[in-house]
Amino acid sequence: MRRVAVSGIGVVSPLGNTVAEVWSHARAGRSGVRRLEMPFSNRLAAPIAATATFDEGLDIEPGKARMLDRFSLLALFAANQAVQGARGALEGIDRERAGVFVGTGMGGTLTMDGGYQTFYGEQSDRIKPFTILMGMHNAAAAWIGIEHGLRGPNMTYSTACSSSTVAIGEAWMRVACGQLDVAIAGGSEAPLSPGSMKAWEALHTVATMDVENPAASCRPFSKNRSGMVLGEGAAMLVIEPWDRAVARGAHLYGEILGYGQSNDASHITRPSVEGQAAAMNAALRAAGVDRQEVEAINAHGTGTQANDRTETAAIRAVFGARADRIPISATKAMHGHLLGAAGALECVLSLLALQHEVALPTVHLQMPDPDCDLDYVANTAREGLAAQVMLSNSFAFGGTNAVLVLRRAAREGRTATRQQSSLPARHAGATAGCGAAP
Amino acid sequence: MTTTFQRLSAILVKDYKFQPERLMLDTPLESLGIDSLGTVELLWNIEDAFRIKLPSEPVELPTLGDVVRFIDELAARQSAANVPKLTRHSALQAE
Hints:
heterodimer, A: alpha/beta, Peroxisomal Thiolase, Chain A, domain 1, 10-stranded mixed beta sheet, 13 helices, B: mainly alpha, Non-ribosomal Peptide Synthetase Peptidyl Carrier Protein, Chain A, 0% strand
């Protein structure tokens, strides 16, 4: 197994459209949730969302931009930014050993919603000729592959709220086992169509609006939490073998040590302590990391009653009494729930938190909950936390749980290497696909 | 008087966000990122803006000049066809 570095990051999100911007807003605990003004928003019980401010024409040929749903535009923007930041990661590569791995929960739902509105609402037969091409879930990955000429595996994962954690994990596996030399991996979501928001409302999982302060509507782990707030955005990573990145003199954002998955196999929405704990344990096994080494966690932390209570119990089940001493950040309170892009954005925030030695805050934690009794870094970032290893949790409807194990790049960074022998060869399960490696 | 090319260019600048200087009669649609499916969508905009009725069969229009000629021919044909039925209104308004 090869060590795997993250050498490029691209983001477009409710917290900003550059790594620096996102980091500065997250560290300050600034919320990207706002009151939503759009057609049909008066029909929503809670017209709030975490929106990305994004000039759709940015860097993209206008004629081409018309062929991309917003989720593809966001994905392409983030991927281009990541590639640019990775300085030369795609130069001189064998293009067939370069892949794209994208997670999305709802794909081109804005386009599909618009098509239905045309057909049913306006009684018109003029459905946009590009509707299918814009709506299909693999459009974002396809456009990234086209833009950068990457002819290896071009994969799209749709496992609801864990989609992009799965995408990053699967990409990690291919790079780690030698099948690929570089991958662009992450997630994208643009779910803020009236029809889709109404459907989420019907599921009774979205937060009621804090009328005094709509930005504070999502309150993970707080007793008065009332649900999640939908968000839009994309986050993409360039991942490649550690040695290659170091040899190129690339900036290293950190290391992906492993990833694990599990399925609750119990209920389509109700989370399971056993399932979530199994994913964390699988990730630790894949990474060859002892649970004692985990020093911080980015929680799934949606702000629903069920998730936060269950996740607390799952973390306790994995870490025992030590769970009390692990800082846990639920950043969705700031950036909303980006569904299929959430895991990728949270992976980015985790890598930045490790790099800057900060535990990000769980904002709007106003009221302690006896069922959520861990250290959630309430309301204010904690500086000076020199964690080395961190988990990023993503759990999903459908019961598909996925967890990444991330490691901070050493401060001397670019040339620092970990002894390969310190990485135990305990990758059973997560490396099942490696048999196919050339 | 505004020409067909000027009206077409106005659509491409306003709805498609193209820089006007990129738009010439000999500009290939492909070079603007408008492929065959994109042409179908563009023709819908043209149908509305020029108030002409498009034929149902597909047409091949490689350049902006070809689009202009296509619009002018259709407008002329449909205007002529509508003239006998019209008394006080122009063909364009009637359509």
